[in-house]
Amino acid sequence: MRCSMGGPVRDERAARLSELRTLLGRTTQAWGERSALEAGGRTLPLAAPLRPLLAGGGLRRGGTVAVESSIALVLALLAEASAAGAWCALVGLPEVGLVAAAEAGLAPGRLALVPRPGAELVAVTIALLDGLDLVAVAGGQRLSAGDRQRLSARARHCGSVLLPVGSWPGADVRLGVESGRWAGLGDSGGGAGRLRCRRVRVRASGRGSACHERVSTLLLPGPDGMAAESSWPGERLVPPLAQEAG
Amino acid sequence: MWCPDWPVVAAAAAEGLPADRPIAVVAANRVQACSSLARQHGVRRGLRRREAQARCPELAVLAADPRRDAREFEAVALAVEELAPGVEVVRSGLVVVPAAGLVGYFGGARAAAERLIEQVAERAGAKCQIGIADGLFAAILAARRGLVVEPGATARFLAPLPIDELAREPGVDLTELISLLRRLGLLNLGAFAALPAVDVASRFGADALTAHRLARGLDPRLPARRCLADEPAVTVEFDPPVTRVDAAAFASRALADRLHGLLAGRGLACTRLGIQVRTLGGMELTRVWRCANPLTSAGTMDRVRWQLDAWLTRERASFAASDGISLLTLSGEEVVEAGALQLGLWGGVGEADERAGRSLARVQALLGPDAVCTAVLGGGRNPRERVLLVPWGDERPASGHALVNADADEPEPPWPGCLPAPSPTTVLSAPAPAEVLDVARLPVRVGERYVISGAPTWAAIDGRPAVRVRGWAGPWPVDQRWWDAEAAWRGSRLQIVLDPQDTTGEMALLMVCQEGHWTVVGRYD
Lengths: 246, 525
What we know:
- The complex is a heterodimer.
- Chain A is of the alpha/beta class.
- Chain A has helices at residues 7-38, 71-83, 98-104, 121-131, 145-158, and strands at residues 43-44, 59-60, 65-67, 88-91, 111-114, 134-138, 161-165, 173-185, 193-206, 214-219, 228-229.
- In chain A, the strands form 3 sheets. Chain A has a 5-stranded mixed beta sheet, covered by helices on one side. In chain A, strands 5-4-6-7 form a 4-stranded parallel beta sheet, with helices on both faces.
- Chain A is elongated, with a radius of gyration of 25 Å.
- Chain B is an alpha+beta fold.
- Chain B has a 6-stranded mixed beta sheet with strand order 5-4-8-7-9-6, with helices on both faces. In chain B, strands 12-13-14-15-16-17 form a 6-stranded antiparallel beta barrel. Chain B has a 3-stranded mixed beta sheet with strand order 2-1-3, sandwiched between helices.
- In chain B, α1 crosses α4.
- The termini of chain B are far apart.
- Chains A and B meet through α2, α3, β5, α4 and β8 of A and α15, β10, β12, β14 and β15 of B.
């Protein structure tokens, strides 16, 4: 629109334009925030005993958290998010105990199992990262570095969490279990009692915000199957059996 | 044409129960349909299972299975098709046929109805009732009463009927509306129909407007119904031809999605679904399913699956070993604007569920339908027994697990001798052989009376060197199915904790001793 009126009107129009632009910026930002919240936020909820281990107190969406060989830890990581409504998948774990998974707190209706992906591991994991929120993958040791990077990038792009079981050199966070001690067995050596809980130390190390190692002691599994704080009253650790005489 | 209590008839036919027993078909712990004998004893639809059994102790209770119903109903549909073309199945037990041709051919509505009843009884051995009226809704109500309504007298026929009859329209849930109308004092359809349409629309909403049109005897759908010049249809060819029901069901899932994608792209939803099949032997089979409400993708898939099941099972006798379905076509024969499609609020899939479902379907396309499964937990004594793996897409059976079963009427049955929490996180698919030795390096045995011969001190798993045992608990007797000679299982369980072998710490194992041999059944890792 051509203005033929001169200076003051042009200034007024410029002021109005800038005012409208800031208004637009504000609404776009509000909309962006709302859609991020709708997407479940930037972190997925995590069981309370595990929160001190990860920066942000939860599983960051788009991240890769490698778990070295402990299935109970994988289940504990998935438990809270699954109970809150997220979809999880376990790929390449044909022998995982599903009763233990349910006891840890996962919802069986939202847990997908792909026990034998075979040679299509990468394609299957990519397909799952697209639609599900948490994907735990075993057998990643056989993949090449390029494939691992592809999967991590895909997780970042889709906003889901990739949990490789085993070693995964490019992971953001590596979680390992050490010094587990079981409690609940009778100490007289007569076979009394039963396994009740295991006190472990979980060590988190990694890059970026996780570059400082964090160690936390907790019960995994706790007395009812879920991860619990390590102050279960009345616990007695298993003492070593008496040495054989002679 | 209405076959009363069709789920009961189908179930009785499938299970081979005699007709003189009261039978009820139960879905989600509530009675869905019952035989007339059961009704005489006081069993009604909607009762809880326990209550129904209390009213009629010799009631035979069977689980609901829509596939079985559809399969058995195919015979009835075929019988009707022999007499009248243009058969449309509304649901198993209810079939709609255009009356004009039939009445004209047999010279009179009553004669046509009698001939049809005879035909169905002869060919399929099923009892049925016929109703003739203008419009699907009125025809359904007429069929329940076995009446013939003169054309144009529909409104007069509908007026004195109670307002609950609105709920008879299959697939529509109007209970709230009905209770509201009741409380407002509108007790029959005539009173409801007397309200002006504008007021109904403004006070109640679109659902009620449709119901209002039904109550007045008019076509529920405003003339936005379209018959397209080119029918949206999708076809898939099977090579090699399909003879198994689950393979056909799997293919139908993808096809139903494609059809819905096609319709959604044009902004349409389907109310009449045509399923056509061509077999290798050249036979062509067709069936039209009609639904009052436009079909969702899940609804389409269900109907295709039931229909294919019915055809494959029935034709098995006539299928040669090399015969099978070679071509499957789904067509939307009648479509409406997609705004009329209402996705369920309760129990419906949310967006996250749909996204997850699509990913899992894609993985199934890569690896096969059995490669992706979910777990259903039930009762049992050992961790392996309690888990049932259901392939993705199949119906998950209601589990007996108390946490999942929200119905407090059914407490979880006790399982004495079951493994308490925490359960092993790794359950070995093939138990690993192991040796357990005591202090003197002699094998440890569990005797007949479940007394262990010595304290386990060393354990050698799977041929590896012996590891010192830090602690153990047990042996706990397990004696299952002693009444069944083949399935009987006797053994004892032991939990042992081994010395730490690596930084992870102590390893705990669940072992089982059966007839003197030890095996590792699970690991707690």
